[in-house]
Structure formats: structure tokens, C-alpha cells
Automatic annotation (TrEMBL):
Domain Helix-turn-helix: 26-74
Name of this chain's protein: Helix-turn-helix domain-containing protein
Organism listed in the record: Olleya marilimosa
Pfam families membership: HTH_17
NCBIfam families: excise (TIGR01764)
Entries under InterPro entries matching the protein: HTH_17, SinI_DNA-bd, Tn1545/Tn916_Xis
Length: 97
């Protein structure tokens, strides 16, 4: 019986994830699931204006899934190899007088 309950929980989780991927506008709870952050962390981030969000009427918070994806990918950290290539490229430039 536990196996079936666990399988049902997993199916519910997958359906929720699929639903979120199909939506353009997310509630704070959906955005929390999408980002893997707690709702309290998201509330703090919106309060500190660290993450793009909308508050129509000044109360309930909504977030655009596409903007969240851009926010995530805008925080890319370069690899050591990429830094090495940039340094090599910079050092290979002729000196300007």
C-alpha cells in the first residue's frame, strides 16, 4: 500500500511540474516549486526586489516563468577554462601605444 501511495505522490509531483511548465504566469507557490526555493525565501526576494515580480492591486504576487528563466540564466558563472581562454586572448593582443 505504501508503494502505491508513493507512486501517487510522484505522479502528482510530475503533473504539478508539467502544469507549471505550461503556464506563463506563476503564483508565488508555483514559482517556489519551479525554482526549488521556499515561499518564504521568494517573499523575501520580492520584498528586497531581487527577483522580477508583479503585484496587481498591491497584494498578491505573480511571477512570469520566462522572466524567472532569464533571471536564472543571467546569473551564469564562467568555468575556469573560459577564464583561461579570456586571459590568453587578452594577453595575446598587441600593446597599444
Amino acid at each position: 500500500m505504501d508503494f502505491i501511495q508513493n507512486e501517487i505522490k510522484e505522479i502528482k509531483k510530475l503533473l504539478l511540474a508539467l502544469n507549471i511548465k505550461q503556464k506563463d504566469i506563476l503564483t508565488i507557490e508555483e514559482a517556489s516549486e519551479f525554482l526549488g526555493l521556499s515561499t518564504s525565501r521568494l517573499y523575501k526576494m520580492t520584498s528586497n526586489k531581487e527577483i522580477p515580480h508583479y503585484k496587481p492591486g498591491g497584494k498578491k504576487i505573480y511571477l512570469k516563468r520566462l522572466e524567472l528563466e532569464h533571471w536564472i540564466t543571467g546569473s551564469r558563472v564562467s568555468t575556469d577554462d573560459e577564464y583561461t581562454l579570456k586571459i590568453d586572448h587578452y594577453l595575446s593582443k598587441p600593446l597599444e601605444h
